[in-house]
């Protein structure tokens, strides 16, 4: 016989509990509600109300709520799937997402454990989100196997979550395989792979995937269209590559689908245009945004753009003009301190640092140490390192070594080099800087000792490479490159460059080349640095007057900086170089960094 319908009184009581559930605010409220569930019999029955209570409890912002939810789950003699899912969801969103995986494995249940609830697609979805947050590739593979065994591989949302977990764990081949094997995909599926490729190691593939989608999305997504998440992922890939032409194309596509004014898209456009060397376009996007639409991310991206392009005073001004309802965070302070550093605004940088409303981290200290060190205030920089509330890391001592080299302070350079050795640093730049400090003081025996240490430690130089974009195609060059199909033309162009800039007073700056080769060999080594090859290729591949944009993986060297300035004057070109630290805009023989870099 079918169960009897609930009495009117029981239905009214359940309705009252439902109403109360929506109003729970404090932990004591949850505990009182728990008591009512026990009294009403809903706790021991497989009541949807019990599962909803567990779900609310597990996601509550109160620190003790999630442990209380787990305690409640463990007290149930026969937890249902919905009960388990509520706890899985709360743990996956918590500061310790790995506990969600432990719960799924039954290791957070009491011993002897009650009957295990059956897993469903939601259980696996929450567990996969936890695996993604933990970057647990092994767990993702195991959950994939469970998913196949349960026969839920046709669930598009679940497969998208699986793809996303693979991508966030860095397993892009598996993410692509899941995507390729899905018979049905929605826009979230495309977005998950796009974001994974763009934020991982395959931005080129992300752009190829975007162009595939943008070119035929009505066929690929018959019931929906690309959205702001699609655009943001594609712009992220453009920013990483410095691919301005692709970025302009993505911007046009955003206009086409009506996403151009979306705040997240605007923020991504500011970041993309800045990283592609077009500060003017980045500022256009920012100033076109309504004041009330700008978010903290909007200000952070714009301050960072101004800072990396050498406009430190403008970055500081925008920081000071931020609306009072937007509270700066650690990213804001790092961006504005970086602007002060690049522009040599020492007192202003100290003011910002001393007025920080968030605890400064290693990067904030490092930027101020760099700021002081470049300005020659080495004692202040060293004192700041000594007063930090945590020990200095490798990057901070490398910063100190660079400042010591800049100002020829042998004692401080030796101290920094010793600290770097103690921390296990073994990169070529450390040795080159120390060697050059010794060489500047004609201490050749010490130069030889540094070279011997490099050989005995098998120190390898990080290869320099540069990119330039011509007609939407990225061209890569390494130092001394002869792999490019037009390398002979490029080398002839370099010979012409040297001839023309020599008339303007150019002399090779060989001080940064290791002192174990002759002067002529040093000049040859400098002549074919990757950024020089990229600039030469730009000159022979673009019409007169067109801006040449170059991206370099290392800091630009002193000689290449001089050469770029002189080329901009001799050939009447604007040259924009994005190196590891900042942008340099060369025009009419001057650089935006004002030779302070």
Automatic annotation (TrEMBL):
Keywords recorded for this protein, A-Z: Repeat, Transit peptide
PPR repeats: 155-189, 262-296
Cited PROSITE patterns: PPR
Entry-linked InterPro entries: DYW_dom, E_motif, PPR_At4g14850-like_plant, PPR_rpt, TPR-like_helical_dom_sf
A GO cellular-component term linked to this record: cytoplasm
Residues of the DYW domain: 505-597
Pfam families found in the cross-reference section: DYW_deaminase, E_motif, PPR, PPR_2
Gene Ontology biological-process entries: mRNA modification
NCBIfam families, sorted: PPR
UniProt name for this protein: DYW domain-containing protein
Naturally occurring in which organism (per UniProt): Urochloa decumbens
